[in-house]
Specification:
Strand content: 5-15%
Number of domains: 1
Shape: globular
Structural class: alpha/beta
Order of helices and strands: HEHEHHHEHEHEEHEH
CATH superfamily: P-loop containing nucleotide triphosphate hydrolases
Radius of gyration: 19 Å
Oligomer: single chain
Helix content: 40-55%
Number of helices: 9
Strand order of the largest sheet: 2-3-1-4-7
Number of strands: 7
Length: 238
Amino acid sequence: MSALMTEIEQGREADRKTLPGPILLLGAPGVGKGTQAKELVKIWGIPQISTGDLLRANVAQGTPLGLQAKEIINRGELVPDTLVNEMVAARLFEPDTVRGYILDGFPRTLGQACWLDARLAGQAGALPVVAVSIQVNYNQLLRRITGRRICPVCQSIYNIYVNPPKRDGFCDIEGAALIQRDDDTEEVFKERMRAYAALTAPVVEHYRDQGRFAEVDGDRPIAVIAAEIIAAVERLRQ
């Protein structure tokens, strides 16, 4: 059996033995957190909880929290942590979260991490959050972001460095001229990396100090990374 298949089987074995609980995926822009979250949702059958999705859903449904958020957004202000925390708290009481969930975009500050820890500590039978950080070399991330090109017709995604179209600058399927998003530039990437590091460093140290933190190499095939995350969660849950 190949090394790749061995790692995948080990991940599946870990899945059978481990109750996932709440899992925070960390990683700089472009590391593939979204891709891995979808993999883990399929493997474990647990939901992905995104604060962006929660906010949009509450606003669209006109919930009391959504109405408060809409008023704040309409004033051009940022939705405060206290309101986001309330939305998360309400979501965590839904029945599909019993076995666990993947946290996406929350907690992103030390204050949110401490609030969530306290919330779970007061909830009977709730497991604490474990954090797994996906690591990819800075230059590799830069190539992933700045090399990305998108077809405006079918939304196919290419990368001029690792997955270029057959004809330079044009979609293989539609033949349309590919575009680069405004935020896929080196300048924007550097600013996003600075912001990520400033916000996330205290969160990483918070979970590391409590022995609830692990790192995995994100510059490998998707299935291998997922298996490594599952193995890391199992170690942290022991």
